[in-house]
């Protein structure tokens, strides 16, 4: 008798579980969500990831909690491996940028049918920077000097994307810049200021303080048009006549492979609201990011094309 | 206005009740996270950073800076009492701190650690106040080649200067360097020693390794059957707080050690990417070369504790130099603080001193106050800390194991780190039995990657011309010192033998 009772109880609890799950399916999300930040706590990517969570909660888009999980290392691949290890693809999302796209391909953490694209949240600009009192006050001067001394002038790079950019600059403008790898943009800045290297690739937020302070000077931007202050003096490569030399560093949101269409659309919509918020716009302004939302389908098309371009160039540049 | 007049203004900002409170809280949290193995200043600051977003920036940074230097105080406690460095920069503290505990002088060691931390921190902040922006310019002179040579000097010294047997030391150094190469190599994109494992891609984390090698292996030793000839864990015998203090005369004897270690530590602290661990290590070596008790270093002398603690606290202050003057972080903790500065809407960079004078000087002033608060708190907790020694082994051991597991898990919320900790612990236990010292492994693990990265950058800049290391004067000097350090024992031996022959 006792055994039957226990069995009945177990069955009952199992049934409630099934029903709970079934009823949960209708209103996504029905449980807490992990937002994986493939970077260590405190850095730029971490601040951005946590801000996204804050805005989602401010806008009350869901009652479920969103837990930030920091998984830094391996150019994003450690975080991606963690996402792949999750059994339910519907409740883990993560931040991605172009550097991590290359990193994931290098480490082999991109699933066979790729991740599920949710939304693009913005694009970052890339600047070609030198010391304020350097002998190369314009890109033309730098170009001439690099042609005269091939591989003698050095550009500091903090990731594969920077190397891809320098490769493109070299092939499009005929320059012969040498690249050196540094751990962070801060280290590149130190090396330029100390006169150990001549140039560096920076995002606007990484060098704004030093440019305003008159220590560094941006002499070219990879964007189509010039950026606002304090970079307004830096012409774009397009302006200088290299019309194919355009690049934006894209930042977006992905989920593990196999996320349901319903969940994907929910997030695509949620990030539309996030990107329209004042808080996100302020963050973008402060960090020189262009607020560029794309829904999940547009982003997917863009992402796959962009990935292909990045990998091809990275291979040619010897970064893959 | 001179810097010190500005500092006086800063004190007005720093002694507002809210800022004093933030400073006290930061210092206490810092001491706590420092004393807990695994949770260091980086983790402490990044966990609390989001909390400070809503604060006034000055209050926020006062609290976070408090965590940073409080951590340097706290790291010494577990190193001295249990031979488990609470933070990587306290590794050198354990070399003399723990033997002091075994001699029954734990109280004096703790007291001395606090005083040395205070003096070191004070000198570091003094330099920061007087010549922050100037020092930052000196730091810039250290490019990849110079740093590579500096670290090379430190790396080669490990074998000769720690422990009794150079051979085992060199082997341990080699193991440390090898362990540090595991993972994906960022600059060449090669996978090294990952054996196809996803988990090894990011390499081995430093904290689980240290916790395992020092903490877990220490517990295993603790659990060995009692050796009746030894006193065992009974070195807590007579614990009186009065025995902890030392005389003013003793303080005056230790003061020169603290001052020279602090200056060296400060200097290493503001170099890009060198950090407090390197600073403490170089100061310890300096003491071992020129100190009054150079022969007894490592057997439990107060000078060893002073050198390490004064240096790592000064280095913590030194790391603020490039952060404030240029907006470039000098250590991983200041990198977190840089994130904070940006989140508070401040623009770190050379204009910070002019545009945000209240912020910069308020924070600098609070560091003086915080340093005093930490030393008082540190001395007050000595009696409580000493009780740890009275806890019976059978209770203490499981608690330490628990702390080890939690500490390594909390690094990246990953069970893999716990596995690393356990393997490192067991390996370390047997290596220690065979006479291999642990400190060289840890130091080489920290220094190896810095050397590799910097040497590679230097070679990339020079298009693989090795002469870059001797063409740069600063680099050449370091290499010269390295040669002298390596050859000195050999030459001395020859001279000795020649003299013996004559006689």
Number of helices, counting only DSSP H or I runs of 4 residues or more of chain A: 11
In one word, what is the shape of chain B?
Answer: globular
CATH third-level topology of the largest domain in chain A: D-Maltodextrin-Binding Protein, domain 2
The total tally of domains of chain B equals: 1
Number of helices of chain B: 22
Helix content of chain A: 40-55%
What is the correct CATH architecture of the largest domain in chain A? Answer: 3-Layer(aba) Sandwich
What is the name of the CATH class of the largest domain in chain A?
Answer: Alpha Beta
Structural class of chain A: alpha/beta
**Greatest interface (CB-CB under 8 A), with counts per chain:** A-B, 54 and 54 residues
The description of the largest β-sheet of chain A is: 6 strands, mixed
Q: Taking strands numbered 1, 2, ... along the chain, how are they ordered across the largest sheet of chain B?
A: 1-2
Report how far the terminal alpha carbons of chain B are from each other: 67 Å
How many structural domains can be distinguished in the coordinates of chain A? Answer: 2
Order of helices and strands of chain B: HHHHHHHHEEHHHHHHHHHHHHHH
Q: CATH superfamily of the largest domain in chain A, called what?
A: Bordetella uptake gene, domain 1
By oligomeric state, this entry counts as heterodimer
Structural class of chain B: mainly alpha
Structure commentary:
Chain A is an alpha/beta fold. Chain A folds into two domains: 33-123 and 249-316, D-Maltodextrin-Binding Protein, domain 2 (3-Layer(aba) Sandwich), CATH 3.40.190.150; 127-221, D-Maltodextrin-Binding Protein, domain 2, CATH 3.40.190.10. Chain A has eleven helices and eleven strands. Chain A has helices at residues 2-26, 44-58, 77-84, 98-107, 139-148, 160-173, 185-193, 204-212, 261-276, 278-286, 296-316; strands spanning 33-37, 66-70, 92-97, 116-124, 127-131, 154-157, 178-181, 199-202, 216-221, 249-255, 289-290. In chain A, the strands form two sheets. Chain A has a six-stranded mixed beta sheet, with helices on both faces. The model of chain A is unreliable at 17-25 (pLDDT under 50). By secondary structure, chain B is mainly alpha-helical. Chain B has one domain (3-502). Helices cover 74% and strands 1% of the residues of chain B. Chain B contains 22 helices and two strands. Chain B has helices spanning 3-14, 17-35, 41-52, 57-82, 91-102, 106-140, 144-161, 166-180, 206-222, 248-270, 275-290, 302-318, 320-326, 332-343, 352-355, 357-380, 382-387, 393-412, 415-433, 439-461, 468-471, 473-502; strands spanning 183-184, 191-192. Chain B has a two-stranded antiparallel ribbon with strand order 1-2. In chain B, a hairpin with a 6-residue loop joins strand 1 (183-184) and strand 2 (191-192). In chain B, helix 6 (106-140) runs parallel beside helix 10 (248-270) and helix 9 (206-222) crosses helix 19 (415-433). Chain B is globular and about 70 Å long. The mean pLDDT of chain B is 82. The chains are: A alpha/beta (320), B mainly alpha (503). At the A-B interface, helix 2, helix 3, strand 7, helix 7 and helix 8 of A face helix 3, strand 1, helix 14 and helix 20 of B.
């Amino acid at each position: 008798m006792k055994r039957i009772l226990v069995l009945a109880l177990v069955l009952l609890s199992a049934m409630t579980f099934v029903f709970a799950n079934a009823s949960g399916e209708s209103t996504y999300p029905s449980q807490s969500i992990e937002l994986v930040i493939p970077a260590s706590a405190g850095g730029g990517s971490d601040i951005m990831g946590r801000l996204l969570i804050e805005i989602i909660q401010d806008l009350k888009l869901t009652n479920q909690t969103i837990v930030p999980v920091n998984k830094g290392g391996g150019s994003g691949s450690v975080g991606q491996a963690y996402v792949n290890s999750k059994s339910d693809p519907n409740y883990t999302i993560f931040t991605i940028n172009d550097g991590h796209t290359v990193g994931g391909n290098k480490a082999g953490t991109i699933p066979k049918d790729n991740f599920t694209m949710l939304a693009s949240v913005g694009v970052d600009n890339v600047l070609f920077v030198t010391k304020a009192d350097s002998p190369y006050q314009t890109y033309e001067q730098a170009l001439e000097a690099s042609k005269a001394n091939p591989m003698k002038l050095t550009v500091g790079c903090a990731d594969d994307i920077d190397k891809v950019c320098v490769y493109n600059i070299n092939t499009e403008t005929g320059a012969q810049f040498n690249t050196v790898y540094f751990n962070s943009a801060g280290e590149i800045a130190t090396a330029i200021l100390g006169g150990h290297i001549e140039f560096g690739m920076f995002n606007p937020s990484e060098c704004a303080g030093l440019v305003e302070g008159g220590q560094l000077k941006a002499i070219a931007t990879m964007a189509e048009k010039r950026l606002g202050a304090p970079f307004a003096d830096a012409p774009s490569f397009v302006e200088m006549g290299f019309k194919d030399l355009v690049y934006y560093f894209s930042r977006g949101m992905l989920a593990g492979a196999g996320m349901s269409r319903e969940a994907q659309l929910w997030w695509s919509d949620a990030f539309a609201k996030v990107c329209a918020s004042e808080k996100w716009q302020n963050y973008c302004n402060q960090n020189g990011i262009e607020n560029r939302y794309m829904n999940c389908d547009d982003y997917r098309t863009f992402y796959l094309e962009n990935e292909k371009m990045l990998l091809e160039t990275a291979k040619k540049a010897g970064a893959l | 206005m001179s810097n010190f007049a500005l500092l006086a203004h800063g004190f007005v900002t720093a002694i507002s009740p809210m800022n004093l409170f933030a400073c006290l809280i930061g210092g206490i949290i810092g001491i706590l996270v420092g004393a807990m193995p695994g949770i260091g200043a980086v983790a402490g600051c990044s966990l609390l950073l989001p909390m400070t977003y809503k604060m006034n920036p000055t209050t926020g940074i006062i609290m976070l800076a408090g965590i940073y230097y409080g951590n340097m105080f706290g790291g010494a406690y577990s190193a001295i009492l249990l031979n488990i460095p609470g933070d990587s920069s306290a590794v050198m503290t354990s070399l003399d701190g723990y033997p002091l505990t075994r001699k029954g002088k734990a109280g004096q060691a703790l007291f001395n650690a606090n005083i040395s931390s205070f003096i070191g921190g004070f000198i570091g902040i003094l330099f920061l106040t007087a010549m922050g922006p100037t020092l930052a310019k000196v730091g810039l002179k250290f490019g990849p080649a110079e740093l590579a040579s500096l670290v090379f000097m430190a790396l080669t010294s490990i074998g000769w200067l720690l422990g009794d047997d150079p051979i085992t030391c060199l082997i341990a150094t080699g193991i440390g360097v090898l362990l540090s190469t595991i993972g994906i190599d960022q600059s060449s994109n090669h996978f090294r020693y990952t054996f196809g494992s996803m988990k090894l891609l990011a390499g081995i984390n430093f904290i689980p390794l240290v916790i395992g090698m020092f903490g877990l292996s220490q517990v295993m030793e603790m659990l060995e059957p009692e050796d009746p000839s030894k006193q065992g864990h009974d070195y807590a015998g007579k614990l009186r707080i009065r025995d902890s203090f030392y005389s003013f005369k003793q303080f005056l004897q230790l003061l020169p050690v603290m001052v020279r270690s602090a200056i060296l530590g400060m200097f290493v602290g503001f170099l890009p990417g060198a950090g407090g661990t390197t600073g403490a290590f170089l100061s310890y070596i300096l003491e071992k070369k020129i100190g009054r008790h150079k022969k007894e270093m490592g057997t439990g002398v107060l000078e060893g504790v002073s050198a390490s603690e004064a240096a790592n606290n000064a280095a913590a202050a030194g790391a603020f130099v490039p952060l404030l003057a240029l907006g470039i972080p000098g250590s991983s903790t200041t990198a977190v603080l840089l994130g904070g500065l940006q989140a508070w809407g401040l623009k770190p960079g050379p204009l910070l001193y002019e545009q945000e004078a209240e912020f910069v000087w308020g924070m600098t002033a609070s560091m003086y106050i915080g340093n005093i608060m930490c030393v008082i708190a540190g001395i007050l907790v000595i009696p409580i800390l000493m009780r740890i020694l009275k806890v019976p082994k059978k209770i203490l051991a499981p608690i330490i194991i628990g702390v080890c597991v939690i500490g390594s898990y909390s690094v990246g919320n990953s069970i893999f780190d716990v596995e690393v900790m356990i393997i490192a612990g067991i390996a370390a236990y047997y290596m220690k039995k065979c006479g291999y010292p642990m400190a060289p492994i840890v130091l080489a693990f920290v220094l190896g990657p810095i050397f590799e990265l910097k040497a590679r950058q230097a070679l990339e800049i020079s298009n693989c011309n090795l002469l870059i290391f001797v063409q740069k004067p600063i680099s050449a000097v370091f290499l010269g010192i390295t040669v002298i350090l390596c050859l000195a024992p050999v030459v001395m031996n020859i001279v000795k033998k020649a003299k013996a022959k004559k006689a």
